Amino acid sequence: MDGPLKDLLVVDLTRVLVGPYCTMILSDLGARVIKIEAPETGDDSRKFGPFVKEYSAYFMSLNRGKESIALNLKNENDKTIFEKILSKADILVENFKPGTLEKWGLGWKQVSKKFPKLIYASASGFGQTGPLKELPAYDMVVQGMGGLMSVTGQPNSEPTRVGTSIGDITAGLFTAIGINAALFDRQKTGKGMYIDVSMLDCQIAILENAIARYLSKNEIPKPMGSRHPSIAPFEAFKTKDSHIIIAAGNDKLFEKLCVALELNDLLNNKDYSTNSLRSEHMDNLKKLLENKLVTKNTKDWVYILEKLKIPCGPIFNIKEAVENPQIEARNMIVKSFHKVIGDFKLAGNPIKMSSYKDEKTRGDIPDLDEHREKILKEFN
């Protein structure tokens, strides 16, 4: 694809989600990505469901537009091939357990001596330092250890995982950010850089209000369902047929909301005169708002509130979210091609850039070792 990273070569030594998500972002921004996979088995996620004609939709959704070659990096001949590719590369991304590539002679210190301009990014569960560095981790492990699960779910509910693999995805995003910053730095210094991203670190980094409350007030936040801990009204409310999200994030919006709901008496109630007071009395305020909201369907309330520019919305299931006309207008469902399945729909790139067209199609989905001959010929 055309993009700001065009003509950059990424060597992708990653599997499952953290690394492939990162390199997919780089690919969508124009970089060429050569995916190095284990012989015979390939990326672990090739065996993850759901499956379409025996091919993993999970794998396909993360590895569009990449080239695949199978190499055993413990084998000297394959290692030689790998280093030939690496000699032309700008970026290496890996998510092995810390210390693994060092054992194979391919750690940062070893590789950077040969290729000083290479940007080398490592994403792992706990990072390259600290007492937990050698332990494996999956998304749910870091969601738990990072505190995220302790503030997710309904009050007094069992531990609840966020509904997407946010531990992996945030690490993939932060790795891509680090790589792009390193590319800018290389323009100034001419030197490569090592990037160390920990999934657990990334969970701490996104705790937002929860970590602010603890570090400033020594309060330990608990699950609050859909409610915001310090803004009110800012949660899901019952309507006649379902729920509506209302996010009245300031006094002006609250005034508009009261007018829209014909609850003008609330404007004269001292308990609701400021955001802080509304937060303190949110249980009572919610009852008053819902007494009105249950008189109409969600669709009707959304129409009324949107006209007044009050932030609101329905709670869509995945089908409704994907088929939302706004999503279509933003080109957020694109397609890629697989030689057996044919066209395959997947999520688009949310980064829209004025200098580059946001194409409706992405690069093809690779079979394991599909590009061996091409790559060997090029990097001979």
In short:
The chain is of the alpha/beta class.
Descriptive account of the structure:
This protein is of the alpha/beta class and 380 residues long. It folds into two domains: 9-206 and 328-378, Crotonobetainyl-coa:carnitine coa-transferase, domain 1 (Rossmann fold, 3-Layer(aba) Sandwich); 234-238 and 243-314, formyl-coa transferase, domain 3 (2-Layer Sandwich), CATH 3.30.1540. Helices cover 37% and strands 16% of the residues. It has 16 helices and 13 strands. The chain has helices spanning 18-28, 57-62, 76-86, 100-103, 108-114, 139-145, 166-189, 199-205, 209-217, 251-260, 275-280, 282-293, 298-307, 318-322, 325-329, 372-378; strands at residues 9-13, 32-37, 51-52, 55-56, 66-70, 91-94, 119-124, 193-198, 234-238, 243-247, 312-314, 333-338, 342-347. The protein has a six-stranded parallel sheet with strand order 5-2-1-6-7-8, sandwiched between helices. Helix 1 (18-28) packs across helix 7 and helix 7 (166-189) crosses helix 8.
Summary tags:
single chain; 380 residues; alpha/beta; Rossmann fold; 2 domains; three-stranded antiparallel beta sheet
Main sheet strand line-up: 5-2-1-6-7-8
Number of individual domains:
2
Arithmetic mean of pLDDT: 97
The main β sheet shows up as: 6 strands, parallel
CATH superfamily of the largest domain: Crotonobetainyl-coa:carnitine coa-transferase, domain 1
